[in-house]
Amino acid sequence: MCPSLICLETFFDIHFLVYNVGMQSFETVKWIYDTVSRYKKNFALLHCVSAYPTPFEDINLRVLKLYQEEFPDIVIGYSGHELGIDISAAAVALGSKIIERHITLDKQQKGSDHKCSLELCEFKQLVTNIRNLEKSLGQTVKKIQPSEMECFQKLGKTIVYSKDLLKGHMLVYGDLDIKVAEPGGVDGSEINNIYGKILNTHVLIDENLQLEHLVT
Predict the structure, then answer these.
(1) Strand-pair partners of 179
(2) Which of 60, 73, 87, 117 is most buried, with most CB under 10 Å away?
(3) Which CATH number characterizes residue 195's domain?
(4) 71: Cβ–Cβ under 8 A, 6 or more apart, which residues?
Protein backbone atom coordinates (compact mmCIF):
# COMPACT_ATOMS: atom_id res chain seq x y z
CA MET A 1 0.00 0.00 0.00
CA CYS A 2 1.03 3.62 -0.47
CA PRO A 3 0.72 5.70 2.72
CA SER A 4 0.79 8.89 0.65
CA LEU A 5 -2.69 8.04 -0.59
CA ILE A 6 -4.20 8.04 2.89
CA CYS A 7 -4.74 11.83 2.73
CA LEU A 8 -5.89 11.82 -0.87
CA GLU A 9 -8.79 14.09 0.03
CA THR A 10 -6.29 16.96 0.23
CA PHE A 11 -5.87 16.72 -3.55
CA PHE A 12 -9.52 17.43 -4.37
CA ASP A 13 -8.76 20.98 -5.45
CA ILE A 14 -5.82 20.04 -7.71
CA HIS A 15 -6.89 20.35 -11.34
CA PHE A 16 -4.71 17.52 -12.61
CA LEU A 17 -2.92 14.96 -10.44
CA VAL A 18 0.21 13.17 -11.70
CA TYR A 19 1.21 10.01 -9.87
CA ASN A 20 4.65 8.51 -10.42
CA VAL A 21 4.63 4.74 -9.88
CA GLY A 22 8.31 3.94 -9.40
CA MET A 23 9.19 1.09 -6.99
CA GLN A 24 5.70 -0.44 -7.30
CA SER A 25 4.37 -3.78 -8.49
CA PHE A 26 1.52 -3.89 -10.97
CA GLU A 27 -0.82 -4.98 -8.19
CA THR A 28 0.03 -1.81 -6.27
CA VAL A 29 -0.32 0.33 -9.39
CA LYS A 30 -3.80 -1.12 -9.94
CA TRP A 31 -4.66 -0.42 -6.31
CA ILE A 32 -3.48 3.18 -6.76
CA TYR A 33 -5.65 3.53 -9.86
CA ASP A 34 -8.71 2.05 -8.14
CA THR A 35 -8.22 4.21 -5.06
CA VAL A 36 -7.58 7.50 -6.83
CA SER A 37 -10.43 6.86 -9.28
CA ARG A 38 -12.91 6.87 -6.42
CA TYR A 39 -12.01 10.49 -5.68
CA LYS A 40 -10.73 11.93 -8.93
CA LYS A 41 -11.01 11.12 -12.64
CA ASN A 42 -8.56 13.71 -13.95
CA PHE A 43 -5.15 12.20 -13.22
CA ALA A 44 -2.15 10.50 -14.80
CA LEU A 45 0.06 7.52 -14.03
CA LEU A 46 3.71 7.76 -15.03
CA HIS A 47 5.68 4.57 -15.60
CA CYS A 48 8.97 4.85 -13.77
CA VAL A 49 11.93 2.77 -12.58
CA SER A 50 13.51 4.40 -9.54
CA ALA A 51 17.17 3.62 -10.25
CA TYR A 52 19.70 6.39 -10.90
CA PRO A 53 20.64 5.93 -13.65
CA THR A 54 18.20 3.24 -14.76
CA PRO A 55 19.87 0.36 -16.68
CA PHE A 56 18.39 0.14 -20.16
CA GLU A 57 17.42 -3.50 -19.65
CA ASP A 58 15.28 -2.52 -16.63
CA ILE A 59 13.29 0.28 -18.27
CA ASN A 60 10.61 -2.03 -19.68
CA LEU A 61 8.82 0.48 -21.91
CA ARG A 62 6.23 -2.14 -22.92
CA VAL A 63 4.62 -1.57 -19.54
CA LEU A 64 3.24 1.61 -21.11
CA LYS A 65 1.03 -0.51 -23.37
CA LEU A 66 -0.12 -2.54 -20.38
CA TYR A 67 -1.16 0.64 -18.56
CA GLN A 68 -2.93 1.97 -21.67
CA GLU A 69 -4.94 -1.24 -21.93
CA GLU A 70 -5.71 -1.56 -18.23
CA PHE A 71 -6.39 2.14 -17.55
CA PRO A 72 -7.79 3.53 -20.82
CA ASP A 73 -9.66 6.41 -19.16
CA ILE A 74 -6.60 8.22 -17.76
CA VAL A 75 -3.40 9.74 -19.09
CA ILE A 76 -0.36 7.46 -19.20
CA GLY A 77 3.14 8.92 -19.20
CA TYR A 78 6.79 8.16 -18.55
CA SER A 79 9.24 9.41 -15.94
CA GLY A 80 12.79 8.64 -17.05
CA HIS A 81 16.00 8.36 -15.06
CA GLU A 82 18.08 6.75 -17.80
CA LEU A 83 21.12 8.28 -19.43
CA GLY A 84 20.49 10.24 -22.61
CA ILE A 85 17.27 11.27 -24.31
CA ASP A 86 16.49 8.49 -26.80
CA ILE A 87 14.39 6.33 -24.47
CA SER A 88 12.20 9.24 -23.42
CA ALA A 89 11.44 9.99 -27.07
CA ALA A 90 10.71 6.30 -27.65
CA ALA A 91 8.16 6.44 -24.83
CA VAL A 92 6.26 9.06 -26.82
CA ALA A 93 6.25 6.71 -29.82
CA LEU A 94 4.63 4.12 -27.55
CA GLY A 95 1.88 6.51 -26.57
CA SER A 96 3.14 8.44 -23.55
CA LYS A 97 1.30 11.74 -23.17
CA ILE A 98 3.56 13.12 -20.43
CA ILE A 99 7.35 12.96 -20.21
CA GLU A 100 9.11 13.82 -16.96
CA ARG A 101 12.88 14.30 -16.80
CA HIS A 102 14.98 15.87 -14.09
CA ILE A 103 17.06 18.96 -14.92
CA THR A 104 20.53 19.78 -13.64
CA LEU A 105 22.90 22.66 -14.27
CA ASP A 106 25.94 20.43 -13.74
CA LYS A 107 26.10 16.64 -14.12
CA GLN A 108 29.33 16.62 -12.09
CA GLN A 109 27.61 17.68 -8.88
CA LYS A 110 27.42 15.16 -6.07
CA GLY A 111 24.38 12.93 -5.93
CA SER A 112 23.26 10.11 -8.21
CA ASP A 113 20.34 12.15 -9.56
CA HIS A 114 22.62 14.69 -11.26
CA LYS A 115 24.29 12.04 -13.42
CA CYS A 116 21.03 10.92 -15.01
CA SER A 117 19.46 14.37 -15.17
CA LEU A 118 19.49 16.46 -18.33
CA GLU A 119 21.37 19.68 -18.79
CA LEU A 120 19.39 22.46 -20.42
CA CYS A 121 20.81 21.86 -23.90
CA GLU A 122 19.89 18.16 -23.66
CA PHE A 123 16.39 18.97 -22.51
CA LYS A 124 15.96 21.37 -25.41
CA GLN A 125 17.11 18.65 -27.82
CA LEU A 126 14.69 16.17 -26.24
CA VAL A 127 11.78 18.56 -26.80
CA THR A 128 12.85 19.06 -30.42
CA ASN A 129 13.12 15.31 -30.96
CA ILE A 130 9.69 14.70 -29.45
CA ARG A 131 8.07 17.38 -31.60
CA ASN A 132 9.64 15.87 -34.72
CA LEU A 133 8.54 12.41 -33.62
CA GLU A 134 4.97 13.58 -33.07
CA LYS A 135 4.88 14.98 -36.60
CA SER A 136 6.39 11.80 -38.04
CA LEU A 137 3.87 9.43 -36.41
CA GLY A 138 1.19 10.59 -38.83
CA GLN A 139 -1.93 8.51 -39.42
CA THR A 140 -2.80 4.88 -40.09
CA VAL A 141 -3.23 5.64 -43.79
CA LYS A 142 -0.76 4.56 -46.47
CA LYS A 143 -0.75 6.87 -49.47
CA ILE A 144 1.63 8.71 -51.76
CA GLN A 145 2.72 11.80 -49.87
CA PRO A 146 2.96 15.25 -51.49
CA SER A 147 6.71 15.26 -50.83
CA GLU A 148 7.04 12.07 -52.92
CA MET A 149 5.41 13.43 -56.04
CA GLU A 150 8.54 14.92 -57.61
CA CYS A 151 10.40 11.64 -57.14
CA PHE A 152 7.36 9.65 -58.27
CA GLN A 153 7.19 11.63 -61.49
CA LYS A 154 10.87 10.87 -62.14
CA LEU A 155 11.03 7.29 -60.88
CA GLY A 156 7.45 6.04 -61.18
CA LYS A 157 7.13 2.93 -63.34
CA THR A 158 5.80 3.57 -66.86
CA ILE A 159 4.67 1.20 -69.62
CA VAL A 160 7.14 1.09 -72.54
CA TYR A 161 7.31 -1.00 -75.70
CA SER A 162 9.66 -3.98 -75.52
CA LYS A 163 10.17 -4.05 -79.32
CA ASP A 164 9.48 -2.09 -82.49
CA LEU A 165 5.84 -2.56 -83.48
CA LEU A 166 3.82 -1.65 -86.55
CA LYS A 167 0.61 0.28 -86.90
CA GLY A 168 -2.40 -2.06 -86.62
CA HIS A 169 -0.62 -4.49 -84.26
CA MET A 170 -2.69 -5.87 -81.36
CA LEU A 171 -0.72 -5.60 -78.14
CA VAL A 172 -0.12 -8.95 -76.43
CA TYR A 173 1.96 -10.25 -73.54
CA GLY A 174 5.63 -9.72 -74.40
CA ASP A 175 5.07 -6.48 -76.30
CA LEU A 176 5.31 -4.28 -73.21
CA ASP A 177 7.69 -3.67 -70.31
CA ILE A 178 7.44 -1.59 -67.16
CA LYS A 179 10.41 0.71 -66.59
CA VAL A 180 11.44 4.00 -65.07
CA ALA A 181 11.13 6.43 -67.96
CA GLU A 182 11.06 10.18 -68.39
CA PRO A 183 8.86 11.79 -69.41
CA GLY A 184 6.38 9.39 -67.86
CA GLY A 185 3.56 7.77 -69.73
CA VAL A 186 0.84 5.33 -68.72
CA ASP A 187 1.35 4.03 -65.17
CA GLY A 188 2.66 0.47 -64.97
CA SER A 189 -0.31 -0.65 -62.90
CA GLU A 190 -2.48 -0.28 -66.03
CA ILE A 191 -0.56 -2.81 -68.14
CA ASN A 192 -3.22 -5.54 -68.04
CA ASN A 193 -5.78 -3.04 -69.33
CA ILE A 194 -3.57 -2.27 -72.35
CA TYR A 195 -3.26 -5.81 -73.69
CA GLY A 196 -5.65 -6.34 -76.59
CA LYS A 197 -5.53 -2.71 -77.70
CA ILE A 198 -4.66 -1.89 -81.35
CA LEU A 199 -1.84 0.49 -82.30
CA ASN A 200 -2.74 3.38 -84.58
CA THR A 201 0.91 4.25 -85.23
CA HIS A 202 4.37 2.71 -85.53
CA VAL A 203 6.27 2.60 -82.20
CA LEU A 204 9.88 1.92 -81.21
CA ILE A 205 11.49 -0.23 -78.52
CA ASP A 206 11.66 1.55 -75.13
CA GLU A 207 9.31 4.28 -76.33
CA ASN A 208 6.76 5.28 -73.71
CA LEU A 209 3.28 4.00 -74.40
CA GLN A 210 0.87 6.90 -74.74
CA LEU A 211 -2.91 6.60 -74.89
CA GLU A 212 -2.92 8.45 -78.22
CA HIS A 213 -0.97 5.49 -79.70
CA LEU A 214 -4.07 3.31 -79.29
CA VAL A 215 -7.18 2.92 -81.41
CA THR A 216 -10.14 4.14 -79.40
Answers:
(1) 158
(2) 117
(3) 3.90.1210.10
(4) 33, 45
Do 70 and 41 fall within a single domain?
yes
The residue from 111, 137, 163 where one domain ends is: 137
CB atoms within 10 A of CB 85: 20
* CB distance 36 to 12 below 8 Å: no
- Both 132 and 161 in a single domain? no
Q: Which alpha helices (H) appear in 73-207, and where do they start and end?
A: 86-93, 112-116, 120-137, 149-155, 191-194
> 133 with 38, same domain?
yes
A 10 A CB-CB count for 213 gives 22
- Find the domain containing 203 and state its range: 146-213
**Span 52-91, pLDDT tens digits:** 999 999 999 999 999 999 999 999 999 999 999 999 999 9
The domain tally of the chain equals 2
Provide the 3-class DSSP secondary structure of residue 86: helix
Of the candidates 110, 52, 109, 115, the residue with the CA atom closest to the CA atom of residue 79: 52
Alpha-helical regions (H) of 1-119: 26-39, 56-59, 63-70, 86-93, 112-116
**Does 171 share its domain with 66?**
no
What end-to-end distance do the CA atoms of the chain give, in Å? 80
Domain shared by 15 and 98, yes or no: yes
pLDDT digits (tens, 9 = 90+) for 133-158: 999 999 999 998 999 988 877 788 89
**Predicted TM-score (pTM) of this structure:** 0.77
